[in-house]
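# nightly structure sweep
# worker-07 picked up a monomer target from the shared queue
# config: single-sequence mode, recycle default, output format = structure tokens
# input follows
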Amino acid sequence: MMNQPFNPNDADVKRGQNRDSLFVKAILRFPVSGDEKEVRVRNISAGGLMAEAPLRTPRGDPIEVQLRNIGWVSGKVAWVAESRFGIAFDYPIDPKMLSVRESSSFEVPRYLAKIDQQVANAPKRQRPI
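# output follows
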């Protein structure tokens, strides 16, 4: 199914089904102008998402969104209401990938980073032979 164009009539990707609520940042790109904006993704499904940002874009405009762990996804603006809007993806995605934590993204807690820095800056002692 990942290689087939998105069909909103497919039973497993209909709007409102299997929609996950979340709050993540993403980058929105308008392919025609090349402009990029940061948006807040409020919910997502295999077939689309709802985002929030102070921008206006006409319904039907082509759009691309960069999602963590997924990459750039193309689609079209499906609806616009004040600062919220919907995007219908051209191809279905696996929305669960947004929740996957990468082991390389591990961040050292501040208190440990401070100790590491102190050890690195400490004068080197020579041991007696």
